[in-house]
């Protein structure tokens, strides 16, 4: 069960990073700040990776039952 909790945690972190990244990206677009846009894109990518890691952890924990 602990692995499933870790998968959920990774998914939550991923969701937070995706939202934060989207906000930075949009702010960068609005202010023509390419550095902020890049940070936003990085955060969104990081969030997507964390989400995938959570899904993999969930699959492995489901398979162990």
Portion of residues in beta strands equals under 5%
Assembly classification: single chain
Percentage of residues in helical conformation: over 70%
Which blocks of ≥5 consecutive residues have pLDDT under 50?
none
Shape: rod-shaped
Largest sheet: none
Derived from helix and strand composition plus strand pairing, the structural class reads mainly alpha
Task: Give the termini separation.
Answer: 10 Å
Number of helices: 2
* Overall pLDDT score: 90
Radius of gyration, taken over Cα atoms and rounded to an integer in Å: 15 Å
Number of beta-strand segments: 0
Task: Name its key features.
65 residues, mainly alpha, 0% strand
How would you sum up this structure, described in words?
The chain has 65 residues and is mainly alpha-helical. The protein is 92% helix and 0% strand. It has helices spanning 2-31, 34-63. The longest helix is centred in the N-terminal third of the chain and has 30 residues, at 2-31. It is rod-shaped and about 45 Å long. It starts with a helix and ends with a helix. The mean pLDDT is 90.
């Amino acid at each position: 069960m602990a692995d499933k909790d870790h998968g959920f945690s990774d998914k939550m972190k991923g969701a937070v990073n995706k939202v934060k990244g989207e906000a930075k990206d949009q702010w960068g677009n609005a202010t023509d700040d390419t550095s902020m846009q890049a940070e936003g894109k990085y955060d969104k990518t990081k969030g997507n990776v964390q989400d995938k890691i959570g899904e993999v952890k969930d699959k492995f924990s489901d398979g162990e039952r």
